[in-house]
Amino acid sequence: MSSQSQQQQQGKHKNREEEEEEEENHLLQSECETIPLSSPDVLLSNWEHADKEKQEEEKDAVYAAKDKVQIFDLEASGSAGSTAVPPFSWRKLWLFTGPGLLMSVAFLDPGNLEGDLQAGAIAGYSLLWLLMWSTIMGLVIQLLSARLGVATGRHLAELCREEYSNWARLVLWILAEMALIAADIQEVIGSAIAFKILSHGLIPIWAGVVITATDCFFFLFLENYGVRKLEGVFAVFIGTMGLSFAWMFFDTKPSEEELMMGLLIPRLSSKTLRQAVEIVGCVITPHNVFLHSALVQSRDIDIRNKGQVQEALNYYSIESSVALLVTLLINLSVITVFARVFYGTEQANGIGLVNAGQYLEERYGGGLFPILYIWGIGLLAAGQSSTITGTYAGQFITEGFLKLNIKKWLRALITRSCAIVPTMICAIVFNTSESSLDTLNEWLNVVQAIQIPFALIPLLTLVSKEEVMGTFRIGPIVEKVAWSVAVLVILVYGYMLLDFFLDEVDGVLFGFLVCLGAAAWISFIVYLVQHSGAIPSLMMRSPNSRGFFSLSRN
């Protein structure tokens, strides 16, 4: 009886399981009826389309994976969470060398050279100390920009898009584009002046602008053969500038004693205050802050591997420091040459890019290598290289703020056109006399001065945030130093703006517009500082700090 009972219970249990299975199959069938099924061919087509889209998106990125310089050996680089930093390697330093060269070009653009020659002609050797310390301040800012790009894998414009509200990032983008166009106009016209000098006046300014716009695309085309090829071109440009201005330096034989005194003894007077402000303003440029955070991403770095990130920061710090040391020597040569030749002369107050070569030739004549052509070659190298980096920076700024998914060549065409069109207009309108070009240069400096706080404050805001930087957030001492540098630079630019508009304001309407613009400028600075939380952060953070090279916050 017990066996029959067990068999009946097993039968009922089996029937119940069959009923539940049939019910599940029925529910599954009803659900599948609402989902359109695709054939294997359709699914394969969809996968291929998605893969193709991914490849196209990678191809059109600023630095596609295949374009990045491979440095780290996957087997030797450690796990994703590794914090070990390998010993120093000259080979790795060579592979990391490049982004600092492109960044340093902004310290040598034609606007800088004009500021240098005017400082030397008017102030003599007295402002060499300021050039040195301004370069050091610029190095601090550029190291922070590189740190942001390496630690996050994204550049400043991209992070600003995520950090700020719609209206704030729109204002930041517009101001960044205006400053970039202003810098680009100076760079392109500087190249055009060089073409005019080297052609004995056969190539007018407007034709030089067209040539510069065209050959810029040619040099950018070299990137298709590898980013190292383009970096090699910049090394040639910087080498050309170094040789040209070193030749002028030894040809004019400046006073070594006065040179050392100018470097070591700070001197400043009311007569040289304007040139002092221009030296600081020429060294720290807004678009270069955006540029460097993107250039460092040309190397393949796994941001999950803290050891790799720290090693990259170490090598980038070395190559950036060496690159800016080279720019310091070049700028130093230009100032001392014009201090030696023109300081205390009647020509000092009227000298500029256009007539500098002619004045040099009048003083030193022709010779085997006429100094006029040496100056023209150096100026051409400065203009060409800075124009290319300006186009580069424009691509990063536009893509970062607007998140444009367009092809790289189209981005370059758009950003180049945005600068070339106003440059052509300026070349035609202001090419009537040397004084008109000087007036144009002053207004372009004003546009860049307006933008500098809106590049520095977002940078310092982001590198101080742990949710952005993780363990690579800067320490409190570095943060205080960085904010001190930023405040000093903003005050210098603010003085430049005040001095300029006090001379230029004429009429009630123009004065009212300037006051309105100044109020908006200050208000936006206050908003960005409040958004950053810098004031309470600087007051409350502990003194345990980390420098540029350290890894752990503990």
From TrEMBL:
The chain crosses the membrane at residues 93-108, 128-150, 170-195, 201-221, 233-250, 322-343, 413-431, 481-502, 508-529. Keywords: Membrane, Transmembrane, Transmembrane helix. Residues 1-32 are annotated as: Disordered. GO terms for cellular component: membrane; trans-Golgi network. It is found in: Membrane. It holds the Pfam family Nramp. InterPro entries: NRAMP_fam. It is a multi-pass membrane protein. GO terms for molecular function: cadmium ion transmembrane transporter activity; manganese ion transmembrane transporter activity. The keyword DNA repair does not apply. Residues 1-10 have a biased composition (Low complexity). GO terms for biological process: iron ion transmembrane transport. Its main location: membrane. The keyword Chaperone does not apply. Belongs to the NRAMP (TC 2.A.55) family. PANTHER family: METAL TRANSPORTER NRAMP3 PROTEIN (PTHR11706:SF79), SOLUTE CARRIER PROTEIN FAMILY 11 MEMBER (PTHR11706). HAMAP family: NRAMP. This is Natural resistance-associated macrophage protein.
